[in-house]
Each structure stands twice: as C-alpha cells, then as structure tokens.
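Replying to the earlier thread about multi-chain prediction with a worked example.

Input:
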Amino acid sequence: MDHKCVKPRSDTAEKILDVGENLIQTRSFNGFSYQDISDALGIKKASIHYHFASKSDLGAAIMTRYRQRLEAAMAIAEGTSENSCWDLLEFYFTPYFQYADTPDKVCLSGSLAGEFPTLPADMQKMVAGFFHDHQTWLAKVLERGKIHGEFAIQDSTVQMARVLFDALQGALLVKRASGEIKQLHDVVDVFRLILTPTGKHDKA
Amino acid sequence: MDHKCVKPRSDTAEKILDVGENLIQTRSFNGFSYQDISDALGIKKASIHYHFASKSDLGAAIMTRYRQRLEAAMAIAEGTSENSCWDLLEFYFTPYFQYADTPDKVCLSGSLAGEFPTLPADMQKMVAGFFHDHQTWLAKVLERGKIHGEFAIQDSTVQMARVLFDALQGALLVKRASGEIKQLHDVVDVFRLILTPTGKHDKA
DNA sequence: GTCTATACAAAGATAGAC
DNA sequence: GTCTATCTTTGTATAGAC
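Result:
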C-alpha cells in the first residue's frame, strides 16, 4: 500500500520545494525568485540551481508534488468504505479552509491560473491536469452520492462538480483580496444546502 | 446624464491603456513589461513613461478605467426600467462570455487576484473594490428579483451573489487552462436553473 | 553540496536632445 | 511627445573552487 511512488529527494531539495510551494501560493510563479528561497533557507542562489537546474524545473517539481499529495489523499479517502459521500465532500473542503485561514494563501493551481499563458509548457499541462482531476473526482463523488440518495441533484453531476470547483477556487482568490473568510464559507454553505435532499444536513 | 467624469486623455495614452489592459488580462501584471507595450504600439519604452511615470501608475489607471467602464454599464442597466432582473443577470454575463470566447483572456481583476500580495497597494485596493462592487450589484439584482418573484431564492441573496461571482471568476480561469468553453456555460446554466422558480426559464 | 564570482539579459526608470 | 542613451537593479543561470 505504501509503494512510495515518490522519488527520494535530499533534505535540502525537499525544503526548497516547501518554500517554493509556499511562495507560489502566496506570490504566484512570476512573483517569486530564487533569491526569496535563498533568503528563507539561508543558502545561496547557486545552491538552489544545484537541486533544480532551472526555475521551470523547480516549478514543475512543486506542481508534481502538490498534485500527488492532494490526489493521493483523495484516492485514499475515496477508497475508504466508511466514508459517506458527505464525508468525502467535507474532506475535500479541508485544504480550502486551511488556505483561507491564512492571510495570503490560495490553491497552488488557483494562483498559477492567473498567469497561465506565461507559464512553461509543462507547468501549463500540470495546471490543466490538476483542474481536470479535481473536477473528475468531485463529479464521481457527486454522482455516487446522487445514486445513494445522499445528494439532491436533479441534473448533471459533472456540471455541478464544475460549478462547485469554480466557486471554491474563485472564493479563495476573492477572499484573499477582501480578507473576509465568509467568502469561502458562503460557497460551502450554499452547496451544503443545495445538495441536501431533506433540508437537514446529516453528515453521519 | 453624460457628465464625463473621465479625465480627457491623449490618444496615445488611451492606446497604452488599451494594450496594457489586454496584456494584464492575458498575461497578468507581473507577466508583462513596458517592452511589450512598446512592441505593440511601435513607440519606445521611454515614451510610455512620459504618459505613465511608473508601472504602478499605469496599472492603477488601467484598473480605474476598467472598473468605471463596467460599473457605469451596470448602473445604467440597473436604472433602465424595461430591464427585468433576468435581463440584468444575463447582461452581467456578457463580458464573461466575451472573454471566454478568446483563447487567453480572463477578467482583469481575476487575473490580478492570483498575484494579489505582490501588487502595489493602490491596485490591491482597486481589486478588492472591484470584487466588492460587483458582488454588491449582483446581490441587489438577486434581492430585487427575489422580491419580484423572478428568482427562486430561499436564503440569503448576498450569499448567492457571492457564490455566483466566485463561480464566474473561477470558471474563466479554469476555462483558459482547459480551453473548454463549457466551463463557463455550466456555471451560467446551473444558476439559470437554480434561480428559475417554475422550472422554465422565462426571460421576458 | 555549498560556496564565490560572474555572465547575461531584462526590467523599470531617468536625462536630455530634438 | 517621442527619441537615444544610459543607469540601476534584479533575475536566471553557469563556472569553478572548496
């Protein structure tokens, strides 16, 4: 089960990825430099190039790790039989709430979306893949919940998954500008209400 | 009625704003340079500085003009008595559809949202103001439509306006990455459905 | 693996001629 | 208003010592 599909990486490389991920989420890809990482870790810019030859490579590595981490968690949650579809949905919301609790973090892909046409080609593919995978996963959860009678969805679950995903990403971005955490909570609350069949939201 | 609250500007300045607006919508603020404008207009970088001393000034001017243009149109539409609330809503969608019809354009503020923390302070205020104004306008339309019986909204119209706005902004960003125009249409279709009281969508 | 040093290009910005 | 020329800073990236 723990088949370690992730390449082992040096401790420094991992720290660079950590800082880089954070920097993209807070400042976007074009908005940070190797100097920022250098400052954060106390190592020289040249040392970063040893681990990641180009900024493009670094960006791709950050995206890859981010996607693997989230999508592995999604796959595990989905495969855990105790989880109801409501559980899965609430589970999916957690990182959004985590980011919204910070003053300046958004989803990695959400941050990159604004500068999409300026990104290296491989990063563009990864961002598009991220969007696709998350919406597909959400659609699967909604479809299963619809069939089980957990969710009240008259029409396309694929469509609903798209709207939910768009709203979550949009809410994070708008929230960061306004500082109002309600921006995200409203999205979650509205969808909880829309998807609830009887009118009461029962998670257990 | 036509009280011209917009400062008269030279023809070149206006062209610079046009190109700059386009560049931000396609490449974001950190993703374009004075050189890009220089190339597009066939004038030298120094000439641009004559019209807009700093990039910060240019960005602020672009944002100001963009907001005024959209919000003036929204105010006029709102004040036109023939318009139903459905009309107003469909009217609000039009620029989103326009952007979605291009390969690489998103909302100006949506583009800036991804790099928000790196923006000059005055631009940050304008982006936040844009988000606030648009959501307030949408909430007003939804509230009026709710009272008139045009819209089926059980709960907070403010909340619903937020979710709709988030979803529209998110959809444009995701659409640009995937190229799938459906990303935006799904949002519009779902909200048309949700807001329709009888189940049929009657715009007249 | 990390450092110093440096190359190289691009960006924002200014001075001053025309 | 636009130009040429130039300055300054920053950013990505490489070479080579340790």
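Residues 199-204 of chain B have pLDDT under 50 and may be disordered.

Feel free to reuse this layout for your own posts.
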